[in-house]
Structures are given as structure tokens and as C-alpha cells.
Task: inverse folding
């Protein structure tokens, strides 16, 4: 579905998104709605390429993006990328207007199990989630706080792995946000 048609079909949901985004100052709701409307009608995006590169090889991320892009609720995934393959390490969903509960203890547990089961010495994490009913993909304050918490957690995962006699370097390769029509990621923002 093209952006203009999508806007018309989902106008009320986009208005609710504007209301949510302006919940601290409801006088700005109409202005925010017009901003969102203009982004859809003018197809204003980030122009980021939907790709991640590991060791000079592009990984096909379309499957991960398409699974969450068209949902009306927020989805959050952490994908583990290793020399022995890729797999979803952690996944959670929220409501359209929630910040999903990211459970760092569960992420630790899944990561340690993945490291042990697959005997890997390096694990890259690709983090992706969607923003429903917003055209332009961009990070919120909550997104950046989540990234910071997970970044700190990678050191804890490495330390816990060492306690169990496993040596594994854990790092975040990218943090991305997908919308119905747009894509944003930290790696391309920094370039």
C-alpha cells in the first residue's frame, strides 16, 4: 500500500499516535498530527539503506524487518549473529503506545544459553523494532535509553560467560527502527 493511501486508511490511528506523542502538552496534538500527515503525504523518510554489514558482507535483514514492519503494535527483537549462523535471541511486544518491558535478566540467560549451545567466541547483536503509525523512523528517548541499557549488559554477559568458563565477545552491531515505509539505524546515522 502506498504512503498516501495508508495515511487515509489509518488516519484515526495516526491521530491517536499524535495524541500519545503530545500527551504532555495536548495543545500541540493538532500540530503533531499535521506533521505526521505531511510526512506520509510527502513521503519524508531517512533514506537509510536497509542493510547491515558484517566483515564486509551484507546480511539480508528483510525477513526480520518484514516480520515487524506492518504490525500495529510495537515489536522488539535482538538477533544474534555469529560465524555459526543467526537467530532471534530475544523478542517482545507491547501495545501501540507502550514501552515494552525489556527484561535484561532474560536477555542474559538467553545469550549465555546461545553462547554455550553454539560454542561461539563472538556474538554480534542486531537490535530492531518498529514504530507503528509513524512515517519517519527515528529514535525516541526510550529507544536510546534501551540501547544504553543493553550496551551495558553486553559487558555483564561477557563476565557471566567467563564465570562459566566460556570466552565470548558480545557487541551490538546496530540498533534499527522500522516503520511501514522507512528505516533508521545508528550505524548509518553515524556515517
Result:
Amino acid at each position: 500500500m502506498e504512503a498516501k493511501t495508508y495515511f487515509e486508511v489509518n488516519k484515526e490511528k495516526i491521530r491517536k499516535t499524535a495524541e500519545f506523542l503530545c500527551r504532555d502538552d495536548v495543545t500541540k496534538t493538532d500540530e503533531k498530527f499535521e506533521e505526521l500527515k505531511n510526512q506520509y503525504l510527502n513521503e519524508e523518510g531517512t533514506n537509510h539503506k536497509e542493510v547491515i554489514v558484517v566483515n564486509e558482507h551484507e546480511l539480508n535483514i528483510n525477513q526480520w524487518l518484514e516480520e515487524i514492519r506492518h504490525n500495529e503494535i510495537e515489536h522488539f527483537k535482538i538477533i544474534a549473529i555469529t560465524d555459526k549462523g543467526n537467530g532471534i535471541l530475544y523478542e517482545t511486544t507491547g501495545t501501540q503506545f507502550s514501552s515494552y518491558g525489556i527484561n535484561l535478566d532474560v536477555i542474559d540467560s538467553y545469550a549465555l544459553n546461545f553462547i554455550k549451545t553454539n560454542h561461539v567466541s563472538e556474538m554480534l547483536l542486531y537490535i530492531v523494532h518498529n514504530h507503528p503509525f509513524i512515517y519517519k523512523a527515528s529514535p525516541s528517548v526510550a529507544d536510546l535509553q534501551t540501547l544504553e541499557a543493553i550496551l551495558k549488559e553486553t559487558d555483564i554477559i561477557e563476565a557471566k560467560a567467563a564465570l562459566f568458563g566460556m570466552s565470548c565477545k558480545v557487541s551490538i552491531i546496530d540498533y534499527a527502527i522500522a516503520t511501514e515505509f522507512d528505516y533508521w539505524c545508528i550505524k548509518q546515522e553515524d556515517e
